[in-house]
Amino acid sequence: MRTNSKNRLREACFANNLYWLRSFGCEVRREGEQIWILHPFDPDFRALLLTRPPSLGNERMARADLHAAIAKEMDVYVDTSVADSWEPALRASGLRQTAESVTRTVQLPSGRQIACAPFNIERVPTSNIDDWSAIYSRLFQRASAFQEIDRRRWRVGEAFPDVEHFVVRAPQTVVSVFQLCWHGGVVGLYSVGVGYANTIPLFKQIRAKAAELAADRQIDLLYFERTRANGRIGSEDTGPRTLRTFQVWRRRR
Question: I need a surface site. Which of 73, 130, 216, 242 has the fewest CB within 10 A?
Answer without folding.
Answer: 216
